[in-house]
Write a structure and sequence with these properties.
By secondary structure, this protein is of the alpha+beta class. It has helices at about 5-15, 25-40, 50-55, 60-70, 75-90, 150-155, 160-165, 175-190, 200-205, 205-215, 265-270, 275, 345-350, 355-365, 375-400; strands spanning about 95-105, 115-120, 125-135, 140-150, 195-200, 220-225, 230, 235-240, 255, 265, 280-290, 290-305, 310-325, 330-335, 425, 435-440, 465-470. It contains 15 helices and 17 strands. The protein starts with a helix and ends in a 16-residue tail after the last strand.
Amino acid sequence: MNAETILRIKPALTTYLHEFDGCFGRITARQHLDTYVLGQLGDLPRKSIEPMADAAGTPPRTLQEFLGLYRWDEAAMRDRLQQLVARRHAHEHSVGLLDETSFVKKGRHTAGVQRQHCGAVGKTENCVVSVHLGYATPDFHTLLDGELYLPEKTWHEDRRRCRQAGVPDEVVYRPKWQIGLEQLVRARGNGLRLAWFTFDEGYGGKPPFLRALDALGQNYVGEVPANFTLWTKPPAVLYREHADQQLGRPPRLPRLKRKSNPRVEVRNIAAYSPLLRRQPWQSYHVKDGHKGPMVWQAKRLTVWRSDEHGLPGAPQQLVVARSVLEPDVTKYFLSNAPELTPTETLLLVAFSRWKIERLFEDGKSELGLDHFEVRKFRSIQRHLILSAVSYLFLAEFHEQERGEKSGPDRGPGPRGHGEVGAPVGSWGPLLPSVGRVNQRLDSAHPTAQRQGPTQPPSPDAAPPARTRSISEGLTQVYLASNVAL
């Protein structure tokens, strides 16, 4: 980071970090916040404590104590961060993004470490995993939350090991979907309103997670595994016992009738359902990737998911999508959106999950999200929150430097309807290595309202041969050594 960049970034960073003054009880701890965030934003090749401390002329042990020993409220910092996003970046087409990321670690003393699937290297490796909540609008995205995942067998059941790694006794094993659900509830409590919520099959395959989202009234489009079971026709439910019931313990009511139609795996629904087989494949331009346009073909069907009692719930929408370039690649998405919601909107939300991968990539390559060398639970947790604080500044500074947009940029609406269009051009780079694609609105859809289970699904009006574009331009955030973003 050169002198010109420092002069530009310092005033904005100082003003931004004053938002978090209330999280610190002593000025000595507060001063280290500037050092840590500035170190993450700098051009150091390695953004662990020692290089950041050396660059700032601070003893490394001081920054280590800042993460592990100093008294300051990282939970309040996270709340403040989310309140800032809610106040400054509220958007009617916002999407919440839930995913996890992993960090390769050696040894067995880092809190949460074990041999498990590591997405960073694509295989089983010794690593730690954290669950994150992201936030995206058509022209802005940032991290909102991050929490270390504590494995059940190797950590939760070994409290002695937990105490050695600084894991508090109140921190216990929770499945990843439960951590993500708590993050969503916390963000909503801090004023964030998400028009949509999306996640991969690791979360979509958990029925309790989906039921909790329904209970919150949160619209979602999430991927589900191929063996996820659904009804294509609501089964018959018995609410009152017949008069000729034999003596004995009365059955629990309501319940499914004995000869009710069974649930079917979604891969079999896609392959054998007459309702789906009669539908032609519709082609949709999802976005422009590194290898060219990404085009998917899709069909949809109204389905029913079982509740906690095994009874059919409200009707939902199943979208089956296959890649045009790789016909063997099929994805299944489930949504609780209103029945009249256009398929374009559902796919737009479903495929917007790539944005959290962008968040992870930027966080690791530009902010040192995976460079931490601390082992204690609190230190890692604080590092995750501080990285989100740094990312928000990075995103806001970039937004400020980019300037005003030349036209509107739309996405899916909070009531399940949205307008989509094809890219019409690109912005010139406002800063080195930074550019974005601007989108134009070409089509309108009627406002979607929730329908009762007896109304049939509304078919798409477009002919099969038409390729629809559902791409949304979203700025990719980079941090070059000669540019402060």
